[in-house]
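Customer escalation, tier 2.

The customer says the design service returned an amino acid string that "doesn't look like it belongs to this structure." They asked us to rerun it and document both sides in this ticket. The original structure tokens are below, unchanged.
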């Protein structure tokens, strides 16, 4: 994703791992590099872990963002693209979900994302030169089409696609489908999956918007349609030519039946729409997983 982002923007690629809470290192980086805008992806994102370790989530996600905003302010960097999440909506009251939907996250991870959105709005109100795009991602999946960059979660994957891919490659025995009694077409959970390459383009569109329009935006990045767990499994079987054994299990705590975006604001303001379909997403996940059966 980074590679593509850099190719699209003509930016130089430099990897410098840095903990955002390390204010000194952050200051040193911003002092040395000429930075026009920051794309802030750094955050913890496991819902279950956030319930067990809320302070870690607030310290890392919220604290890290405060340190970043302070360092940016100190060095005159005034544009930020932030990875927010559809998780800020909580249990959807209506579908598709527009940006003005109620914001009621149900776990510390989601609350940390919403707190950051509030931080950004307050900071922007205090500094007219600062502007941001808070992008509420739906369910990013997929991999770089080269097969060189993909998702390699530590331990047993929490999310659907890495789990399915590891079953298909033979690393895990069977997928547990969490719930088949939801009020959806086949009883399994429905989500708005978006290819990471489309997501990357969404960030480029947001950077472009911030440089042209000079004001902030909060918007959904989703395809605007949902797929059930069983539909995703079928698509993955088509893409990989492998059977994905599955068993039905109890619902996972905190899961909702269906969630998909109203993506019209991103289309109108950013000129962005998701272009890649579920087959492309599965094909690229499979390319990465089959070329990297043991991960990185
Ligand atoms: C999850 C988080 C969300 C976070 C996102 C990060 C929860 C409740 N939500 O989204 O806040 O922003 O990941 O990527 O954890 N499923 C199975 N079996 C599995 C895994 C998943 O059946 O082994 C089902 C789930 O019940 C759901 C769908 O697949 O219906 C998608 O799940 P997942 O990929 O974990 O995404 P979300 O839960 O939507």
């Amino acid at each position: 994703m980074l590679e593509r982002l850099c190719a699209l923007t003509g930016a130089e690629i430099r990897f410098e791992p840095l903990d955002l809470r390390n204010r000194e290192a952050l200051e040193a980086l911003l002092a040395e590099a000429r930075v026009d805008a920051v794309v802030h992806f750094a955050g913890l994102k496991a819902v279950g872990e956030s319930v067990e370790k809320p302070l870690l989530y607030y310290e890392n996600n919220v604290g890290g963002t405060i340190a970043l905003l302070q360092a940016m302010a100190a060095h005159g960097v005034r544009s930020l693209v932030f990875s927010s999440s559809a998780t800020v909506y909580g249990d959807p009251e209506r579908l598709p979900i527009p940006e003005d939907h109620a914001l009621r996250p149900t776990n510390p991870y989601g609350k940390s994302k919403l707190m950051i959105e509030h931080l950004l709005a307050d900071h922007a109100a205090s500094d007219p030169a600062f502007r941001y795009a808070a992008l509420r991602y739906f369910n990013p999946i997929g991999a770089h089409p080269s097969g060189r960059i993909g998702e390699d979660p530590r331990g047993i994957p929490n999310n659907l696609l890495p789990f399915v891919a590891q079953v298909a490659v033979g690393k895990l025995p069977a997928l547990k489908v969490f719930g088949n009694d939801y009020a959806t077409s086949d009883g399994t959970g429905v989500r708005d999956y978006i290819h990471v390459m489309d997501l990357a383009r969404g960030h480029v569109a947001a950077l472009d918007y911030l440089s042209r329009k000079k004001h902030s935006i909060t918007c959904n990045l989703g395809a605007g349609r949902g797929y059930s767990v069983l539909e995703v499994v079928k698509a993955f079987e088509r893409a990989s030519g492998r059977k994905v054994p599955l068993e039905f299990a109890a619902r996972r705590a905190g899961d909702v039946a269906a969630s998909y975006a109203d993506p019209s604001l991103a289309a109108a303001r950013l000129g962005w729409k998701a272009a890649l379909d579920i087959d492309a997403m599965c094909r690229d996940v499979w390319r990465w997983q089959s070329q990297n059966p043991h991960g990185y």
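Tier 2 assessment: The sequence is consistent with the input. The mean pLDDT is 94. The chain is about 40% helix and 15% strand. Sent an explanation to the customer and offered a walkthrough call.
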